[in-house]
From TrEMBL:
Residues 46-173 form the DOMON domain. GO terms for cellular component: membrane. Pfam families: DUF568. Residues 159-186 are annotated as: Disordered. CDD domains: DOMON_CIL1_like (cd09629). It comes from the Eukaryota. This is DOMON domain-containing protein. Residues 1-25 form the signal peptide.
Length: 186
């Protein structure tokens, strides 16, 4: 069979259509758990997305934070009620243990070299869980009531795990660019 430029062009078109149709942006992402979120944001760094439903009656937000991750990394999503950076953030961390089970817990970030051990946050968080499938970690939680309005600073991170413990993340590139302001009503 002779391969012509027309054949290569046709195959290229078919492959590109397949790749475009198989990719899911945050707006059309389907969760395996069938949960539905009305809002989402494709975060600008660290290959992450945040999905949420804001519940005005309870001033709470149901979140799903998704991030690409290898089996030997941790991910975290946080609200910083007192500033714009990492210190002061109130985080939810998730990673895989070497046996394949998932660890997920809350931890306050009180320094640039935190221990990342389980701890209470400065606001209520409930229904915390996480799943790991196809090199993607998803953290689920209900945050609130949020008493300071619907706009806040948030941060997200990723780093290595060693001896079943999260280690310090990179201090350059995307890891220092992973903050922003989130308006739950947008």
């Amino acid at each position: 069979m002779e391969v012509t430029s027309e054949t290569i062009f046709t195959i290229s078109i078919i492959l590109s259509l397949f790749l475009v149709s198989s990719a899911q942006s945050c707006k059309n992402y389907t969760f395996a758990s069938k949960q539905v979120f009305t809002s989402c944001s494709e975060l600008p760094v660290l290959q992450a997305n945040l999905h949420w439903n804001y519940i005005p009656e309870t001033k709470s937000v149901h979140i799903a934070y998704r991030a690409n991750q290898t089996p030997t990394e941790w991910v975290a999503w946080a609200i910083n009620p007192t500033g714009t950076g990492m210190v002061g953030s109130q985080a939810i961390v998730a990673f895989r243990y070497s046996n394949g089970t998932v660890a997920v817990y809350t931890t306050p970030i009180d320094s640039y070299n935190p221990l990342m051990q389980p701890g209470n946050l400065s606001f209520p968080v409930s229904n915390v869980s996480a799943t790991y499938t196809n090199n993607e970690m998803t953290i689920f939680a209900v945050v609130g009531p949020l008493v300071n309005g619907t706009t806040f600073n948030h941060a997200w991170q990723a780093g290595p795990v060693s001896n079943e413990n999260p280690q310090i993340h990179s201090t350059s590139g995307p890891n220092v660019e992973s903050t922003g302001t989130l308006d739950l009503l947008s």
